[in-house]
Amino acid sequence: MTRSELLAIPTPEETKSYKPITVRNIFNTIDDLALKNDFFIQNEMFDVKQKGQKQRMRFQFYTGTPKYAFEVAVLNSYDHKLALRAAGGGTSCICWNLVAMGDTKIVERHQGTIQENLYNFLETCFNEKTNQIQNAQTLDQAFDFVPLTRREMAELAGRLFYEEELVGPRQAEVIRKEMSNPSFKYDCNLDSLNGLYQHVTYAIQDEHPMTFLQTQQGVQSFFVEQYQEMTQNKLILL
Fold first, then answer.
1. Ordered DSSP codes for 54-87
2. How many CB atoms lie within 10 A of CB 97?
3. Which SS3 state, helix, strand or coil, does residue 14 take?
4. Which of 78, 84, 80, 82 is nearest to 120 (CA)?
5. pTM of the entire structure?
6. Cβ atoms of 157 and 167 closer than 8 Å
7. Strands 54-61 and 98-108
8. Contact predicate 81/108, CB 8 Å
9. In sequence order, what are the beta bridge partners of 107?
10. Greatest extent of the chain over all pairs of C-alpha atoms, in Å
11. Where are the chain's structural domains?
């Protein structure tokens, strides 16, 4: 979708128990903070469900590094059923997969000072952007040094599907195809934990807006745990 299409979605009226935050307000906040930080938007992607009642907005900013960008994701709703959610982190410039969600995230009910709280949170994300990019680079480099066979990759992907329930059947099929024939020329060791991580994060990009941020964080935590376990059992030269 485009910005114009999102802006055309009717905004619900404010009530005593519900205060909407408009799509226009989110756009204005992002644009204002980008201007203050001398950032420009490299990419943006929007997705809606339930005829626009739930909106997912992702903004990718150029950071001057060829491999990583800084991203902010916002999940908003107009149906009174979903709290506002937002997070920031480093993202791959190659395929738009969110490599590292920020440790700071917001879950805010549509009440009171929600607009001010969102602005303050996103301002913190921009202030922490350097740390977030460094976190993404650290994960990328660490995962690259953990070699995996195709069978080991299949086992981990199976666990994500059957045990963790972080990927569904269609996403599992995307992972399988990416393992055989990657859609992108990644600057990493594809026969490693990092290679599988890139395929998985690519596969879950179109996760439902309601569960997008939760799934992204779950996948990252899963891979960090696998890295910690594997480096205890294998000789890894860092």
1. EEEEEEEE--S-SSEEEEEEEEEESSSSS-EEEE
2. 21
3. coil
4. 84
5. 0.75
6. yes
7. unpaired
8. no
9. 85
10. 60
11. 3-129, 142-233
* pLDDT, tens only, 38-86: 888 988 999 998 889 999 999 989 877 777 788 888 989 998 888 888 8
Token pair 């997705």 is found at 47
With H, G, I as helix, E, B as strand and everything else as coil, classify residue 236: coil
- Distant-in-sequence, close-in-space partners of 231: CB < 8 Å, separation ≥ 6: 146
For 168, half-sphere exposure in the C-beta direction (CA atoms, 13 angstrom radius) is 9
Cα dist from 158 to 64, 141, 219, whole Å: 37, 24, 13
Measure Cα distances from 222 to 23, 131, 150, 215 in Å.
32, 21, 18, 10
Pairs from 134-137 (Cβ < 8 Å, separation ≥ 24): 135/89, 135/90, 135/100, 135/102, 136/68, 136/89, 136/90, 136/91, 136/99, 136/100, 137/67, 137/68, 137/90
Per-residue tokens: 139: 């994960």
111-161: pLDDT as tens digits: 888 889 889 989 988 888 878 778 778 888 889 999 999 999 999 999 999
What tokens does 22 get? Answer: 């408009």
List alpha helices for the chain, DSSP H: 3-7, 23-36, 114-127, 129-144, 150-162, 169-180, 193-203, 212-233
Q: Reading across the β-sheet that carries 84-92, which strands appear in turn?
A: 41-49, 54-61, 68-77, 84-92, 98-108
Residue 86: exposed, middle, or buried by beta-carbon count in 10 A (0-12, 13-18, 19+)? buried
